[in-house]
């Protein structure tokens, strides 16, 4: 047998070589050398191996190197041949596993080894090797998804080995059935008569479910997993399984229980409405309710893994009936749920009578009345108190899972949200911060459904004193979305927020924003408080409060936002309030809404469009933006008279618009920046130097060079700082960049003597044009009549012409090309960063010993930054010009809301000794990587040789996107 | 039937003086050895004379197990071991072993030095007693002797509290000690695996209580303390020096830090220092939060909590004082209580259970005038609050533990009788297992059904396997033939041939023979043939042979025919079968007695 195989292998070799040689003449030799070498070497090795240890060593060594697809088959033949000869189990095991690995190789069709593997399976005695071979078959089977015959064979093999005594073999068989079992057809239908063992036609599911009762817990787990696998592959699990799965919930082994929870969940999602009987009574309930009750039970399981699993699962069972859902929050003893349906009244009475003491009062647990013990269950087998247990669990993983599940359920049921409120509020006092934070977030998410009572608000507000900034800010966020019931609540909230502001002045913005929403949500509740809040008096004038006091601003923000939808309120304002309104409306326009103030037109002084309703003003601003762009687009030629002025004005308008309309700030900024680029380009082209002779213009071209440089930088900002660009806009940006590069090239040509550097930069430019064409092939039709368009027309000429000629062409093209119109961007947001900490206000230098390090806490908010973990860096600039870029850890970024990130990190500073304290600058950088960016940046550096210094602190491939903050530091010389 | 006997010497339908005797598989074990808070006379300690009238206990007890360091579980230990006399091993966990002597010493001081009692154990006795202690680790199986093994599980309640599983052969008992199923600020929840003991002996302090979520409790507690402090009142919290006190300390400490409060918090008694030291050391026994954060800061290193000096009690201004003992029956807490009781601004918060007869119990029941020693009366004006902080499992927790351990029988101790009765009913109804609640001195007896392991010979097993399918099917029990040999304390199941060989016996065959008379006119051989065809038609699926020597064989049953001497028509059938074929043989004889059907040829 072995000899025969060997011959076959060699034959196969020669055959494949023969086939390949005629195909490719030249590289055939190469193939011939490399291909047999791999397998042949293996063969030689295996033959050399005198004992099994050696063979195993060779195989292990062999497994480390990848095998090319075309030699896989040969290798497999050799392995199989050796397999039949081998007597040692471990070697056979290794070979079997290698077979599996090899059949995963890309481009290799494993169908040819199915027979061999099955054959080997039949002769194998060792259980371990059997399991491994089945695993190999599993790999093969998954590699060949559309081959029903092989699949059928594999399934038969699996069924045959299911009765093996070794658990591993049964595991693998079940896995095989789970992965390959036929989704639609019953098992033996097309298998030409049933197998000898199975007398009746049985489908995969019933075979798998037989092993739910296996003696080995690992096999039981595997059986459930296989069933889940079937479900994932789209097979409809029969409802009969439900009962079996429920039994497994009380298994002795946690992995079985955990899998069973999943199984029960799957079934509850499949058959939510079918009716199941309750054992020990003749009533029936919906399956999803039954499953919910059973999984709830698992929340008090002995193993925390199961508890986490169960708690998580509960969250996704949204079809459960409301009265079941509410039981989960009920820890109080009550009659069994099922009875409750028939004897609803009695159960309610029982509950109300409170059979068990709460533990808050002494001796209130003296049994008041003897209850019919038939109706009272201590462990209610239903959902009773599942969440109460989950939220009190020992492991915070379970608690978090429970909080999340509560959130999911509460979002879909308003009444449940109302009920779980108390529990969530309680979680604000959890000992682990993560849990507290999570529960605050959850409460925010369900806040649409709920109204906080005063006592609840009290507990919520107590958390405002928390040390952790995350918690406080999450709470502010929560308050923004919360409804409260009475005016006392408003007062309470305001009071606590002001206390918070006093204690942590850095929370200023967050508190103001919070009050803005509180005000606009509860205008009617604020109204009765106005005079008190503004401390006005009907007869006496009160002193005017200090306008710079953050607390006073906070009150004003609350009042003004409430006044927006409460027209009677302004009548209560005193004179200075109106003045302050005007001031705040201008200085904090994002917090103070426009108000319609009677007879105060001159004060508010806003154009009628702006004083309209909020959405209207956004629309009108958008219209304005569009109009501005349209106006600009009338400029046909860059040299047209008045074009510069128009651009100037438009840029100014847009910038102001961005300040006024925060919704459109991104778009307006984007347009303004784009137009500035155009303006710069225009200015540079209109300089007189173009008319001068080359030698004369050495001095004057400084502005033009600077302009080119600036445009380049701006284009990078345009491309990477704004999110939500479509490809058309990106093309436009690249186009401007190309223009800037052309300008640079022309300028270099004019200033620099010598052909060599020019030659290389010309070449680079042509490459850039080429890559532009490749990148934006689809956008080219939109770029009619533009610089690129013209350039591409001339491309054949350009590539063959001399540098001087090229420069000349570029110059004329540049001057002739028109302004490319910008399509109005729809959803554009500018990435911004604000460093909150350090504030830069401290006069006390941070002292440390030179040569050692000092940690500086950085706290910054980032908005609209995609993937901040990889792109945001911190830069520290020392007074001597040294700069360090620090990459924050991914864990330092938090995500408090959509499109918002928070960076809280520490940077380490160090320097040699200074004589006196000095300031360092800290800022955030946004790193980008553009295909052409590196070369562009290099160009920038090399250009700096002739006079223009590189912009301060420019770092390759980064954009500064936060204002620098100055920190006073003082490295002292080390004392000896 | 083997039996397990459980006799509580203390804590039977009562709280305090826990001491339970268990005899299982011929071993006697004492579980806990505590004192009673409510008594100052002999009733304080368990009645050891129940075990033996006089003399030492060593020969009657195989081991003593202490579940945790509370005095009502270990207070009588030196008395028992040194004064009554016991030299065997005493088992307790490491933290219990460390903290227990501190408490015993304190107890001794109060009794001897303050009250001036004589005939009490001495410091040296405590030391000697502790020398007999063998420490236990969680989940470590300790062999007390060849047959008796014990294993400790985490119980929550206080640092080092353990539940113990006691096992002899296949019989086992689990004793819970005091335990807590909900985690608190410093300890985790009790946990046990599905060990299915024969008896689960559980405490039942809160048999009729289902407590609110612990978060509500904590919030209420903090709110009460905070309000009282803001009013300028003094707050007294009587605690047992160890256990609850640490939890409340952590709670207040974190609250003080969060709310930036300045009022001083004091902790009375010198043993706090020592005890806190152990709390810092045994971090592995605490809850998840403390275990995870102790690298940054050990939670037991308090910033706001300072040691108490007696003179502080008269200081003006608000303060919070933790004072021992917890039931206001003696010591510092009682002194402070007397001082503060007159002012309605002050508050006392009872954080736990109070035994009947203590002042704590009285004021909780609303008594406003107390009779003190020496006929003085004390008017109680201060506010009395009760916060259930004692870390005992509530009714639901007890049920949860039962569900976790799945015992065959339940036994309740450490609780009030009336409440126990209620819980007993619940347990019996919910789990349908027997539940016992013996009073002190009463014995509860549970008969067990231990499985007896028998060695089966491999050959026999294989033979049986070959007969019916490869895998044993747990759903279908199968009968098999074999011989059970009992020899020198070992049981063996072997095939009968092997048994004969081993025992050196000859095989005896037992055969039954039977004569049946039949009216048949045919000749003998014809009759035989007719019988043969008849049987063939009736017994399908059996091998029936017509042998040439004039017999019919059905399996191993031989049938012969002979004519009777007097009447040729009366045939006598001779049936003979072996003992193994009894069923078939008796069937055949009845069948043939009915005669042959006439239609046969």
TrEMBL record, chain A:
Which InterPro entries does the UniProt entry name for this protein? ARM-like, ARM-type_fold, INTS4_8HBD, INTS4_C
What cellular-component terms does GO give this entry?
cytoplasm; integrator complex
Name any one Pfam family assigned in the record: INTS4_C
- Protein name as annotated: Integrator complex subunit 4
Listed PANTHER family: INTEGRATOR COMPLEX SUBUNIT 4
Per UniProt, residues of the INTS4 8 helical bundle domain are: 623-825
Location in the cell reads: Cytoplasm; Nucleus
Keyword Membrane assigned to the entry: answer is no
Q: Which GO terms describe its biological process?
A: snRNA processing
* Domain Integrator complex subunit 4/Protein SIEL C-terminal Ig-like residue range list: 834-973
UniProt key word Nucleus: yes
Which keywords label this protein?
Answer: Cytoplasm, Nucleus, Repeat
Q: Which family does it belong to?
A: Belongs to the Integrator subunit 4 family.
| Gene3D superfamilies hit by this protein | Leucine-rich Repeat Variant
UniProtKB/TrEMBL annotation, chain B:
| A Pfam family that the UniProt record links to this protein | RMMBL
Domain named Beta-Casp is located at 245-363
The cellular location(s) given in this protein's UniProt record come to: Cytoplasm; Nucleus
- Which UniProt keyword terms apply here? Cytoplasm, Hydrolase, Metal-binding, Nucleus, Zinc
> Can you give the residue ranges of the Metallo-beta-lactamase domain?
16-229
Q: Which GO terms describe its cellular component?
A: cytoplasm; nucleus
Q: Which cofactor does it need?
A: Zn(2+)
- The answer on whether this UniProt entry bears the keyword Membrane reads no
Q: GO:BP terms for this protein?
A: snRNA processing
InterPro entries on file: Beta_Casp, INTS11-like_MBL-fold, IntS11_C, MBL, Metallo-B-lactamas, RibonucZ/Hydroxyglut_hydro, RMMBL
Database matches in SMART domains: Beta-Casp, Lactamase_B
Principal localisation: cytoplasm
The record ties this protein, via SUPFAM superfamilies, to: Metallo-hydrolase/oxidoreductase
**Name under which the protein is recorded:** Integrator complex subunit 11
Source organism per entry reads Scophthalmus maximus
| Gene that produces this protein | INTS11
